[in-house]
Structures are given as C-alpha cells and as structure tokens.
Fold this sequence. Notes:
CATH class of the largest domain: Alpha Beta
Strand content: 15-25%
Oligomer: single chain
Number of helices: 15
Strand order of the largest sheet: 3-2-1-4-18-17-16
Number of strands: 18
Shape: globular
Distance between the termini: 40 Å
CATH superfamily of the largest domain: FAD/NAD(P)-binding domain
Radius of gyration: 23 Å
Amino acid sequence: MRSLRVAVVGGGPAGIYAADILTRQYEQAHVDVIERLPAPYGLVRYGVAPDHPRIKEIIKALRRVLSNDRIRFLGNVDYGTDLKLSDLQRYYDAVIFATGATADRALNIPGIELNGSFGAADFVSWYAGHPDVAREWPLEAESVAVLGAGNVALDVARMLAKPADEQLTTEIAENVYQGLKANRATDVHVFARRGPAHIKFSPMELRELSHSPSVDVLVTEEGFEIDDAGQSEISSHKATKLVVDTLLKYLEAEPTGAPHRIHIHMMQNPVEILGEDGNVVAIRTERTEYNGDGTVRGTGEYVDTPVQAVYRAVGYLSSNLADLPFDDNAGVVPNEAGRVLDLDGVQVPGVYVTGWIKRGPVGLIGHTKSDANQTITCLLEDLDSLAPAEVTDPDAILGQLAEAGVEVVTWSDWERLDAHEVSLGEAAGRERIKVVPREDMMRAARG
C-alpha cells in the first residue's frame, strides 16, 4: 500500500470531514488541513449566531477529527497568496479544495447600492466575530427589512431584534455586544416570495424567534396561502408541516406588547429599495400569487414598507480560486463527483473539491459529510494514476512558509488560543468569549 499525502484547503466541516473519511478509509494517508484563518471550523465558528450553542456542538466532533495524529492543522495560511497550486502539487499527491462559500449572492434590484443596504453574510461575519471584518456595524435603523426565506434570514432578524444583554450567556465578542447594545431596531420585517409551505426555515430556527421575552413574532394573514403543491409538501415532509404549524401559531397569537417585533410577510417579492439623499427609506415589494406548481408570479400590486436598512439574505456565493477553473454562473469549481474539470471538461489530475465550492451553498451538515465521502471515493479510485509528490519531506512545506514569513498556527497553537478564549469566558461567568482581532488571536496562539 503506497503512502498518500493530501492537502485539504479549507478548515471548515467540509474539509475536516474529507480528512476524517480519507484517514479512516486509507491507513497510509496523511492529511494537512490548510486554513487561511488562525482558527479552524469555518462557518461553524464564523457563520453561526452566538446564541446557537446547540449547533456549535458539532465543533466537538470536528475537534476529535483534528486531534488525529495523521491530520495536521496549518492555520493562518492563505491559499493563493502564501501558497499556489503548483506549491501544493510539489508537496502532496493530491489536493482537495473545501473553501466553502462566504460572500453574499447578488440581488439585482434598483436601490441595492444605497447606504443602509447590506449583505447578510457580511453582517453574520461581524456578529460571529470574524477577524477580517470591521469591528463596528451601523445599527441606527429603527425599522429593518430582511429579504430571504431561509435560516440565515431568521438569524439576522433574531440578532437585530433580540436585546444585547440576552446574549451575555453566549461567546459573543465584546465589540459585538457593545454594537448590539446600541442597536435601535424595534421592528424587523422578513419578506418571502412564497407561502408557508415553501419557506426554507427549519422548524427549530423558526420556533427560536419567540424564545426572547422581548420579541413578538407577528405573521401577517395576507400571504398565508397554501396551493396544491404546498399541501403536497406538508403531507410528505414532517419538517414542512412543523414550519407551517409554527407560522400558524404565530399568526393566531395575540401580541404581548414586547418592545421588539419580527414581522413575517409572505407572498411578497422585493423589487426595489427606495431611497432619499442616498439613504434607504423603504422597501417596495410586489404581491405574488401561485402558478399552481409551487412557483409564483407577480400580481402588479405593490406595497411600500418604510425601513431605514435592508439586509439581503438570498444565499451565499463561493469565490473563485487562484489557478483553478470557475463557473461564475453556478458559483462552483467545475467538477464531476468531486473531480475537478477544466473549462473543456477534462479532469485536472490530482485536484478535487468538496462542500459548497463543489455543489453550491445548499444542504446541511449531513449533506456535507456524504459529499465528502463521494469525493474521497473518487480520489481513492484514482490512486494508481496520481503522480507522486516531488518532495516527500512532510516538513518541507513548513520551511517554505517560514522563509516567506508566514506565521503558521499549528494544532497546539490553536489549543492555546482555544484555552485563552475559555479562560476569558470563565472570568466573566461564561463558557467562552471569542477573541476577534487577528493580532490578538496570534498572540494568544503563541502563548
């Protein structure tokens, strides 16, 4: 059995699962997980709201994987800048890209460029304490629109409506807490193009909206429409039925008079952001109606809702990677079952993808694991045809990075940073307080 050295670019769930499956299925495999941030876990750390500790339970499983002796973590290393594809091909027999999707998908409607118009992914990065975004966020708007019908839209709405002090049991970073404490939002309007049976909320996320005693969830009766296709969804999917039941409870509930409100508007398609003097003043939506197959069409009836900020939560988008082909329309690296293809459809030897950069930003953690399994299966099928690495010394890549002045964060370095965050939390009676500035992260990692 030949030895196998593989680089996985991306330290989120997709990359970690790929490393785990490969080392389980092939005894002679050694994997380096290369991550541009000083911390692992990707969107589980930087794409999940701080008040979602249950979702963050996945970190415990990912941590066990990265503790494997045959898996090495190399953090604070930026692919495309610190390392090129040609470098990786010198040191590894194969390369798997698992860089995910972190940018906001565009929404091409008039007014999207106005002051007060934001991408939800940028806001998520801010409140999740990402080291590479600004420390402050403008939160002067009293009425806010959130455009989208998925869990990210719910997270954004909840974070805007929920008082900051209720976040003090979480790992929320200090700058984020101070920013949210100054937040002036009292009304958050969530807009969905379709009705309750076609909304992509998960039941748990939807129920969590009402967990704060300071927030009323208000569902408007107009737009609570279910067509035949929606009824079929309810009958065949338990999760859909739970979502519809929860929306119905919100619809029927009497407002408590809470100081903050989340309004859920269905069957309304955003068509324009209205502005004055360059600033957002309203969102214009067009009422929709069903075509009979679950899709909708505009009715020509428009509604203007006064707001001072708009967040588009219409999906994540992957970024193109240096030296790799990229499908700009689909937002993925062209591939067949994880094998990277060039723009002529020919397989690029020894280069693979997994996760959202492979299939687009859809699906949950479980899909990511099965996705990684498919990619690893292809890699192992290709084993005999993989060209061996030119350099066999596993530490040679560390030497190149050191010569280039790159300060690599190893697994033991991360464990020091991890322990530092936990100690900050313990001092405040909390489980953890996240460190945000990259220089502070590096300082803690060095001990």
